Amino acid sequence: MSSLGETLKGTSISSDAVKSLAIEKLKRILGDKGFTDDGNEMTPFLTEWRGFYSGDALLIVFPENVQMVSSIIKICAEADISIVPQGGNTSMCGGAVPSSDGNSIVLSMSKMNNILSIDTTNYTMTVEAGCILKNIQEAAEAEDRYFPLSLAAEGSCMIGGNLATNAGGTNVLRYGNARELVLGLEVVLPDGRILDQLTGLRKDNTGYDLKQLFLGSEGTLGIITKAVLKLFPTPKSINAAYCAVPSISAALELLESARVESGDSVETFELISRQVLDLVLKHIPDTRDPLNAPFEYYVLLEIVSTKHNDDQAKQNFENMLEKALESEVILDAAIAQTEQQRQEFWALRENATESQKLEGASIKHDVSVPISSIPKFYDAAWKAILKVEPEARLVAFGHAGDGNLHFNVAEPENSPSSDFLAKWTDINHAVHEVVKDFNGSISAEHGIGQLKREELPHYKSQTAIDVMRIIKSALDPKGIMNPGKVI
Questions:
Q1: What is the pLDDT at residue 3?
Q2: Which residue among 7, 207, 371, 476 is least crowded, i.e. fewest CB within 10 A of its CB?
Q3: What average pLDDT score do residues 393-405 get?
Q4: Residue-level pLDDT at 55
Q5: Is it the case that residue 120 has pLDDT exceeding 60?
Q6: pLDDT digits (tens, 9 = 90+) for 327-368
Q7: In this structure, are residues 333 and 242 in contact, taking their beta carbons and an 8 Å threshold?
């Protein structure tokens, strides 16, 4: 395949003409089913699922293998066409849609969706980046193995996007973020070269751990095309309880007790405020309060065992809850007796975001602080919000077991949404300044994308920003990889 440079050697041609030739070349190598430039077909790829961000693109491309990705990037690099990698387009920060300048192509990974191998002895699975997360979970389950990354969008999000954003989810406490579930990667660099590090090794000290550059980089340094994922023994027994606690401090006491008493087998520890529960009960059909009386805070707690019908684990679980009840660390609790009851507990947590949407406008914060700081952060951030909007409603929930809270603010009742949303910047600033005071992060699991790009320099040291820019410049000197995101 001749390059554009060879094709145009000795000619004088405008940049627009170069781009037009590049687009035509992409169409030829991709074939009729490998791209779309139809406006209606392009629209879903150009708009963020929440509708906050939208852009424009020259083309949407659907490569089927890594060699095709490499060819696409080489052509775009020569023509100075930007590339926006996209998985399931479930980004919460506008990281997977192009800008409005129309100088990009969107590279969808949807056709690279094969599970390539499962090594049950090595506890690994090798997958292409376009695999739906749910399909990966089910493929592992079919081999009596477990892939623990679990997100609300797991039925549509793709593993490449999960890795590019270092996704978190509900099981981080036990298994870690997405980057901790990866042993090897295949990545196409911004000049089209293929970096093959598809290793299933757990120990490899031969130089820099290059895969870590791309995990969490949001497609700004290269395109993840394949990954070797860690698998785990399948949980066979899950003990779940929906617990009322008198305070957030008490919730953390419960966490400590559960970790110690279970031999550190806590998989889920989700904090849910009463405001969240009320909204779910109001807007989501077939949901019910598991307890007979209302309480201010709740915890969804799960402890797992790899043994079938683990009676001892169940007894330890119940004993631990009984002790917590006696010491008033918990005020009441419902223990799931069936899988259906467990799923009913989960419905109260998983519908938190949807119920907020149905209630009206909200301003969301995906933040993390040290677990020990959660109670003081919670109080300080709420006071800071009330100074900006005294009638605001706090809709807080999240992964308290790893310090990640979705500290969301709902519009006042009987007040125009426009008035509330006009305070977006001030409320964000109020919360993020408190996060900074507690040495936390303004993005725990959703990434930076477009949403927090301008804020990042304020909450990251100048030295850290400089190093990030040096890495970006070294790998992507033309700045064609997902421009306008992260830095």
A1: 61
A2: 207
A3: 95
A4: 95
A5: yes
A6: 999 999 999 999 999 999 999 999 998 999 899 999 999 999
A7: yes
Q: Is pLDDT of 486 > 60?
A: yes
CA angle 153/254/149 to nearest 5° reads 20
Which residues face 122 on adjacent strands? none
What Å distances lie between residue 154 and 133, 147, 172, CA to CA? Answer: 5, 12, 15
User: Which residue in this structure is represented by tokens 């917590």?
Assistant: 324
Residue 25: count of CB within 10 angstroms of its CB: 20
16-34 pLDDT, tens digit per residue, is 899 999 999 999 999 999 9
The two beta strands, 82-86 and 104-108, are parallel
Structure tokens at 264: 């550190």
User: Three-class SS string for the chain?
Assistant: CCCHHHHCCCCCCCHHHHHHHHHHHHHHHHCHHHEECCHHHHHHHHECCCCCCECCCCEEECCCCHHHHHHHHHHHHHHCCEEEEECCCCCCCCCCCCCCCCCEEEEECCCCCCEEEEECCCCEEEEECCCEHHHHHHHHHHCCEECCCCCCCCCCCEHHHHHHCCCCCCCHHHHCCHHHHEEEEEEECCCCCEEEECCCCCCCCCCCCCHHHHCCCCCCCCEEEEEEEECEECCCEEEEEEEEECCHHHHHHHHHHHHHHCCCCEEEEEEEEHHHHHHHHHHCCCCCCCCCCCCCEEEEEEEEECCCCCHHHHHHHHHHHHHHHHCCCCCEEEECCCHHHHHHHHHHHHCHHHHHHHHCCEECCEEECCHHHHHHHHHHHHHHHHHHCCCCEEEEEEEHHHCEEEEEEECCCCCCHHHHHCCHHHHHHHHHHHHHHCCCECCCCCCCCCCCCCCHHHHCCHHHHHHHHHHHHHHCCCCCECCCCCC
End-to-end CA, the chain: 34
pLDDT score of 146? 98
Whether 448 contacts 472, CB under 8 Å: no
Q: Is the pLDDT of residue 387 over 70?
A: yes
